[in-house]
Amino acid sequence: MIIRVDKCSTFGIKKAITKSVQYLPKLLISNQLIPKITIGESFQYLGRYFDFHMSNDNHKTELTTLLNELMSDIGSKPLHPKNKLLFCSRYVLSKLAWHFTVATLSKTWVTENIDSIANKYIRRWLEVPISGTLSTVFLANNKFGLSIYPPSVKFIQCQTVLRKALKSSPNESTNDLWRATSNHTNIQYDAYNSTKEVLKDFRFGHENKLLNQLTSQGSFFCSVTKFALPQLSKVWSVAQSKLPKNIYNFTIRYINNSLPTRKNLNRWTISSNSDFSFCLSPETLLHTVAGCQFYLDRFTWRHNSVLNFLAHQLQTVDGSTLYADLNGFKSPSILTGDTYRPDLLLSCSNGSSYVVELTTGYETNLKSNVKRKKDKYRELLRQLGETHLTIEELREMAAINNANVFMSKMSRYVGNIADMHWPELHALFKADTDNELGDSTSDVRQQNVINNPHVVDWFFTEK
What we know:
Layout: E1 12-16, E2 19-23, E3 28-29, E4 32-33, E5 43-45, E6 48-50, H1 57-75, H2 81-102, H3 107-126, H4 151-167, H5 172-180, H6 186-190, H7 195-212, H8 219-227, H9 230-241, H10 245-255, H11 262-267, H12 285-291, H13 296-314, E7 320-324, H14 333-336, E8 344-348, E9 353-356, H15 366-387, H16 391-400, H17 403-420, H18 422-433, H19 442-451, H20 453-462
Antiparallel strand pairs: 1-2, 3-4, 5-6, 7-8, 8-9
Helix pairs in contact: 1-2, 1-3, 2-4, 3-4, 4-7, 15-17, 17-19
């Protein structure tokens, strides 16, 4: 057997009075001196660094250097931020896994030194200021996050896998090693049964942080998670991933409320005043995207753009009539009158009516507004049900040949039509008959509709 002396090294420790010290041993092979490990230096065996103090300094240096090089290299590429994050989560973390497994590092050191490097680049790619939280970014896709996690989570996962391998090993000596080290810092890793539990616990912590601690930056997350449909989160994740870089980054800062509004600039001590210069109200995120009267035209355009899309989609429903509060569509007031004015009204052939009230933009009091609008339109839907004569009802009246039933249903129909459109009809009747009918009862209104068929016919034709 040939021994390559240049591939060998010696590392010596000896007892000096009451303590152990490192020294430089002198060993020869075939009259060749084996290279010695300098005092204070370390040697590497099977990928693990060993020095006299077992300090893991080499692992720490390699980790920080490697992470900086990889993140800097990814950042220099002309890639979309989502692809940079993909490289980070699937490639970079795997390159750190070996050091996280074999080195005796503390979670605190990894969080303070390795996470800080990764977070610095993530903030740069997503244009999130230092004052903006990354908690929303670390959430899963179905929670309006980006499904990434910092190196410290990967470190805990590696330690969990290592501890589980020691515990479940068929070798008794390995099991003894697990039992002997089941103390101090290892207790936190032994609490997990799998890497999925580690990730779940990490994301639960950030959800709780957004819901209960970050009252400002977590306000949007609180609202959207309480009221959004499960299907919305899937649609949002796909739609967000297709956005160009600038809008993609804007959505990240929108969700965690780190956009440079006057309120935020004042909170970050960058601006001395939090008021919007046009309306002199505090320029919060809510005020900027939904509350400022100065930008009412812009809000209306945004609202109508979404409404127009919904209207064209609902036009394809067979056997139905669509009414929309938009140019080019029949106005909902044809059926609802001017008292109610929903954004969309879909009248189906089976007698069902669907009212759509659209809200765009950030809204913190969504729940109370939904209740208020439900209560508002509940009476409208009842009236529409009574004013709508279905084919089945007409066939039923024809089959029983009962004049009383026919008159009852027609009277109900005409009466509700008169009540719903009375302000407009009254103006026409007054001009036509010069009668004062402003305080008339429902019966009087009904009779006026019956007595003036030419006016009613013209009214609905023009509508």
